[in-house]
Amino acid sequence: ICIDIVTCSFGMTKIITLAPSTAVINNSLFDIEVTENVSGSYEDNWKVVKANQMIPHWPRYIKEGVMCVRYLGRMLSASCFSIKDIHRTLLRMDDIERPALHVEVTATDYDGFKINFSDYKPGDAPLLIVNSLLNQPISFCQKEDVHTQVLPPQYYVYYTWNDPLKPQELILSTNIDNLTIKLNPVCGVINKESENPIYYAIFHDGPQTVLIFSSETQIIEAVSNTSSISESMDSYIQIGLRCLGISIINDINHEDLLYISLNPTKDMWTETRNFNVQPVEHKLNHSIEEYYKKYQENSNEQQTDQKYQIDKNRYVQFDGDVAEISDEEGNSVHVKRDTLDGFWTGLGFSTSNQAIHLRINNLQIDNQLPITLFPT
After folding, report:
1. Is there a contact between 266 and 337 (Cβ–Cβ < 8 Å)?
2. In the β-sheet with 255-262, what is the strand arrangement from edge to edge?
3. Total domains in the fold of the chain
4. 99-123, pLDDT tens digit by residue?
5. Are residues 143 and 218 in the same domain?
6. Domain presence at residue 376
7. Which residues contact 325 (CB under 8 A, 6 or more apart)?
8. Three-state secondary-structure class, residue 217
9. How confident is the model at residue 342 (pLDDT cuts 50, 70, 90)?
């Protein structure tokens, strides 16, 4: 049994929710039956789950962790899948009108496992295989499975695993070469030594994973963005606010509700890299700050050109609020004692790439109501 304890909005009452460790949810339009699979055979204890119904389920064979499902009234065969880990897949069903059923296994710390069945929708198939070759068919099958399919040239097919319990890898075959691939974004080539090599790419098109074969590298580069990975971002925009205060007021009662403030950081040592101001790592910042205090003491005695040893190989020398860190090999970098803005954002972009960097420092929210349990 799963137990969830939360505090209600008043802050004084606890809400305790008891739920089964595993729940089966049928969001499809058809009634189904589920049971556990033990040593390759179905249990006789089939449970009916009607459309849009949820039932509790207490697995008796947790070590195996295999569940079987079939449409209500279909006694010949069922599809099996694992309920021990979080995943989703499309099950092959023994029904001409309803050939596939989507299942998703989720788990959280407070309400256990949920096994959710739903009807097929675009993007549910594990793989869309596209053969854009002009005269070369592609043969493929699931690893450790004997059912081989052939995809003719200029055809595509939505594919799901014949057996979700077997390795979810695909074995590709051509007239010359064989290849085993996983469904991770990747590019490659088949028949590399032949006169007509076959290029392939795996990429995500929205929720759908796509495997495409082509004889043209331009197509592979276009779908996988391999040509733009190393493209540098030559345009950069920065916006910084030193400090910001926002007061939220109830205009009807004319009373303050909240005050939100963004404030700059304390003084720290920062380094500028590609127009981006970054603080140095904590240990180095502490060491520089200690020697900076000594530098200020010595500056009163007109000793301002002294070098201080940070560690075995690095030294620091100060010039006002600027410090030069150097090593025995002649490498050096300049850092500055400064405060970071309360709010800072940077946008870098090029023709095909974008990057956004957001930083918020010292966020504080004050409750302005006169009577409250948590004033700040």
Report:
1. no
2. 244-250, 255-262, 363-367
3. 4
4. 999 999 998 767 788 999 999 998 8
5. yes
6. no
7. 288, 310, 314, 315, 316, 332, 333, 334, 335
8. helix
9. confident
Q: With H, G, I as helix, E, B as strand and everything else as coil, classify residue 310.
A: coil
Cβ contact 316:329 at 8 Å: no
Q: pTM here?
A: 0.57
As a whole number of angstroms, the distance between CA 343 and CA 337 comes to: 18
Q: Are residues 257 and 353 located together in one domain of the fold?
A: yes
* Residue 182 shares a structural domain with residue 216: yes
Neighbours of 338 (CB within 10 A): 17
Q: Which of 35, 64, 177, 53 is nearest to 116 (CA)?
A: 53
Task: Indicate the DSSP class of residue 174.
Answer: -
Give domain status of residue 92, yes or no: yes
**In terms of domains, do 288 and 321 share one?**
yes
Give yes or no for a contact between 303 and 311, defined as CB atoms under 8 angstroms apart: no
373 within a domain of the structure (yes/no): no
Are 51 and 96 part of one and the same domain?
yes
Joined tokens for residue 50:
């009607």
Q: What is the DSSP letter of 228?
A: T
Boundaries of domain holding 351: 235-264+342-367
Does residue 243 sit in the same domain as residue 352? yes
Amino acid at 270: T
